[in-house]
Structure formats: C-alpha cells, structure tokens
Design goal:
Layout: E1 11-15, E2 18-22, H1 25-28, E3 37-42, H2 65-82, E4 83-91, H3 96-103, H4 116-139, H5 148-164, H6 170-194
Parallel strand pairs: 3-4
Antiparallel strand pairs: 1-2
C-alpha cells in the first residue's frame, strides 16, 4: 500500500454551546480540556474490515488486531479524559467475526453444503476471541459481555463436529442452532446496553 500524499486537513467550526473539530482524532483530542465533553459520537475504523484511506494515520490499516487495539486504546483513554463524569460516549461497534460465523451456520445439518466458508469464519472468530480475551486481561477491566465470543465459538465448534461426524439429529439441531442465535443476540443486546 502506498502512503496517501493528500495534504492533511484540519478545520474548526463553532456556535453557541458546540464546537466541531476536523482532523486526526489522535491529535485533536489532545487539544481538549479534561471533563469538558457532554456527548461524543464516533464510529472507529474496524481492524482490516474497511480501509478508509491508504494513510498510515488510518487505524483501519493496523498490521494486526493487537496493534489496532493498542492504537485505539490511546483514543479511548483521551475520550475518557475529556468526557464529563456521568456523561456519555456513543461508539459504533460490531462483533464482525462472530456475526459472520453465526450467519454461515448451516440451516440444515443434513445438507450443510460447502463448509469451507464456515470453517474459515470459525477460525477468524477463534483469532478474534483470543485477541479480545488478551485485550480484556491486559486492560484489567471486565464485564458480563466478555464471555460471549468464546462461548459462541465453543458452541459453533461443537455443531461443526456433529455435522462432520454426521451425528446430527435434525430434531435437536434446531435447539443447537437456536441456542447459538439466542446467545449471539444476547451478546449484541448487552453490548449495546453496557458498553
């Protein structure tokens, strides 16, 4: 990938009770005083999901999930610093690896079709769950949502093994399938409520 040669642009606008800053959040957040923000809204670039630009400034261009989390931690620390106590930050997040694996879960175990995409999604979820668990341990902060990626991964692996061994009872498969979907939906609901 080549470096973006476009000029780095900053700008500002303000009005009564508001101020808008354009620029690299890693730099612009440092300009804000502690405990001055009532509400922040952001959609961070997801690691390797979407490349917004070829710039090295773009967090989406991190070399690995661990590097992304290390870089993004800097922004989160500044968001916490500038946010007034008791106020809110709205951050758009998604469990992309989990969603992909759940979406590829075969609907009919007797005719699962090509399992390569499902296997690849399970492998990606396993890597994401390991990175997530490591980041949670290193942060020293945990929540009730933290257990979901690994739990869903375990259930998907069990289902995959049953399908591979042709030991799937169609009557009970719907219970396994619905259980994974239910746990995934619970994870999303709790993530939205508690994070």
């Amino acid at each position: 990938m080549t470096e973006n040669t476009d000029a780095y642009v900053t700008d500002e606008a303000e009005g009564q009770n508001w101020r808008l800053l354009l620029g690299d959040s890693c730099e612009r957040l440092a300009e804000l005083d502690d405990n001055t923000i009532d509400l922040s809204i952001c959609s961070p670039p997801f690691d390797s999901l979407y490349t917004y630009s070829p710039s090295t400034r773009d967090l989406g261009n991190s070399a690995s999930r661990i590097e992304f989390l290390q870089h993004y931690r800097y922004i989160v620390e500044h968001q916490l610093r500038v946010t007034k106590p008791g106020r809110n930050a709205c951050i758009h997040v998604q469990q992309v690896a989990t969603k992909k694996a759940v979406d590829l879960l075969p609907r009919d175990p007797r005719r699962p079709g090509d399992m390569k995409a499902f296997d690849a999604a399970i492998a990606a979820l396993a890597e994401a769950a390991r990175d997530f668990d490591k980041a949670a341990r290193e942060s020293g902060k945990t929540s009730s949502v933290d257990r979901f990626p690994s739990s869903i991964l375990g259930r998907l692996r069990e289902i995959r093994e049953k399908i591979a061994k042709r030991r799937v009872d169609p009557t009970f498969y719907s219970t396994d399938f619905d259980g994974v979907i239910s746990e995934y939906n619970m994870m999303i609901t709790m993530s939205n409520a508690f994070r």
